[in-house]
TrEMBL record, chain A:
It comes from Streptomyces swartbergensis. One of its GO terms (molecular function) is oxidoreductase activity, acting on paired donors, with oxidation of a pair of donors resulting in the reduction of molecular oxygen to two molecules of water. It comes from the Bacteria. This is Acyl-CoA desaturase. One of its GO terms (cellular component) is membrane. One of its GO terms (biological process) is lipid biosynthetic process. Residues 67-334 form the Fatty acid desaturase domain.
TrEMBL record, chain B:
Keywords: 2Fe-2S, FAD, Flavoprotein, Iron, Iron-sulfur, Metal-binding, Oxidoreductase. The lineage of its organism: Bacteria, Bacillati, Actinomycetota, Actinomycetes, Kitasatosporales. This is Stearoyl-CoA 9-desaturase. Residues 36-139 form the FAD-binding FR-type domain. It comes from Streptomyces swartbergensis. InterPro entries: 2Fe-2S_ferredoxin-like_sf, 2Fe-2S_ferredoxin-type, Beta-grasp_dom_sf, Cbr1-like_FAD-bd_dom, FAD-bd_FR_type, FNR_nucleotide-bd, MRET, OxRdtase_FAD/NAD-bd.
Amino acid sequence: MSAIDPTAHLTAEQIEELGRELDAIRDEVIAGRGEKDAAYIRKVISAQRKLELVSRGVLLFSIFPPAWLIGTAGLSVAKIMDNMEIGHNILHGQWDWMRDPKIHSTTWEWDHVSPADQWKHSHNELHHTYTNVIGKDNDLGYGIMRVDEDQKWHPFHLGQPLWNFINACFFEYGIAAYDLELGKNLHKRRRKNPEFRARAKAVGRKIRKQVLKDYVIHPLLSGPSFLPTLAATFTANLVRNIWTHSVIMCGHFPEGVQVFERRSIKGETRGQWYLRQMMGSANISGSKAMHFMTGNLSHQIEHHLFPDLPSNRYAEVAVKVRALFEKYELEYVTGPLPKQVFSAWHKVFRLSLPNKKPKVKTPDREQELVAA
Amino acid sequence: MTSAALRSRAWKLLEMVTTPLLPSDYLDLVSPLRAGADLRGRIEAVHPETGDAATIVIRPGRGWRGHTAGQYVRIGVDVDGVRLWRAYSITSPTNRQDGRVTITVKAIPDGKVSNHLVRRAKPGTLIQLDQPTGDFVLPQAKPAKVLYLTAGSGITPVMGMLRDTEFDDVVMVHCAPQPQDVIFRNELHDLVADKKLRLTEVHTDTDGMLDIARLDELVPDWAERETWACGPAGLLDAAEEHWTEHGVQERLHTERFRPSIVVAGDGGEVTFSATGKTVDADGATPLLDIGEEAGVLMPSGCRMGICFGCITPLKTGAVRDLRTGEITEAEPGVLIQTCVSAAAGPCDIER
């Protein structure tokens, strides 16, 4: 948290007006959703399935180096598409309006060790509601890192660059552990909780299926290519994990992103909630292909304002949202991927060491609003 | 090992390869109409019938079990990207050589699906299908004399019967605003020319609504005829009353396209607990509409309380049947038809 509140110049009325303008942007997209959007997601799903099928087919001959390279690259891209543009966004309910039971947040399952329903709870309900609120949003460092000066330092944080690197390599397992709230639930007393045990079992089942597919069945089907295929699926999972980890780090950790104190969200209005999402997220700039491969999470600010709008619409929404940032004189944090990744990593390194705690006063908007 | 056991093993192995997807998710990409797939159909042609009605020729998937003349089929069509389900009578005969089935749709004002099918449906489009159903059908034993009493698009199930089975003595009384609004008019007149049908057209724009008492004059022996009637509620209500009055109600078979009575009361807060959504509902809007509006995945069908395609567990609270006003309270195992039930106070629908 910077020492100066970057939203201090806004009155309570302005914030509510901002909220109304954002609502209008949202309503416009919802009114215009239709056949083209439906065709888009179906096309992406179909392309992903074909790419995965072909890549796995090519990997049956992975003993030949060109086949290994092409198959591994294809499978990596297919897994990234599955997790980002398809899985993440469908599980957000972005495509529920189509009423297609095959493309619906309540029926979808993804190529990931965390079962969809557990991820939906920790991600959609907790992270998206309490975005960047210290002590409420576990995405702030995933419980293993300090990513803001205001988070308390502990000698454990000295190792956080290493923790972050390990987390990047095995990100899907990190997320599964995180969705299980493993840190909290491994205490002796909680371990026996039947609800936790049921959820842990579900994760276990999902891990078993994923591992069996990638590291046993597919290599076995490859016959003499057993080992190269094993290496290929491991590499594809690694590439997917590091890529998704990098994209997600860019969403909330780069310099310029604000975090909030618990008390600052008490009695938060719709406008204030929007404002927190605007200040708590960061975008990645780049080409259409880059946006696609991030599952349009490169439009993290727009995604956090409107988590359930179809991802193919974030690019057009971004133009209008950016204009609002300018109108209300707020900083739109964005930058190319390498710059944002560096910025986030820089923070991870910097905050592994203790710092002097800056004192900051957030204006008490609740009182202001009553006064207004 | 038997071949069935082998196949099931091979399938299990395939599932292990495709997890978290199913092998069928991949097969659907290339062969959506194959045996074993979810039942779908492909629109092969759209033939205009009148200014606002068209016949849709559908090639059903391999799982199609075939229909009985007079039955309807539920179809799921994507309109503006949104999957909507409706029920339509099948108008093709059961013995059609090429295995295609047809439905004939009349575009009703503000009807999303009917207007889409009549005016915008394109050959090649995949639609979702359900197995045909409905008990507005011909009996096994041929009746000696038959009367078809229809109005508007109520002619569609009857056309399915006319094309399917020939009877010795068939009379039809059909109501439509004007001659050009009569669906299948040419075909009907051909049947008349071949002496296979006696037809009376009532053109309501000039003749006025059919007074059921006029049947005595139009079809003097109506009471002796096995009768199938389909049309708007007004006509069917009058027919039921008329046949009952004359003590021949067992000869009358009716099919309604819309629920007849609407009883509304106070609404309440509706929770869709599986999806985690809560919305306010008035006491007149079907819970099906409320859920769909809120983005909940609601099963649906005829939307008029007959097909039971929408039944959903009621976990807590109470709902009102919009046709009768009857209140249903939650108990374990209680299922409600969301298309004809509205909230009667706070309730929890398991979707």
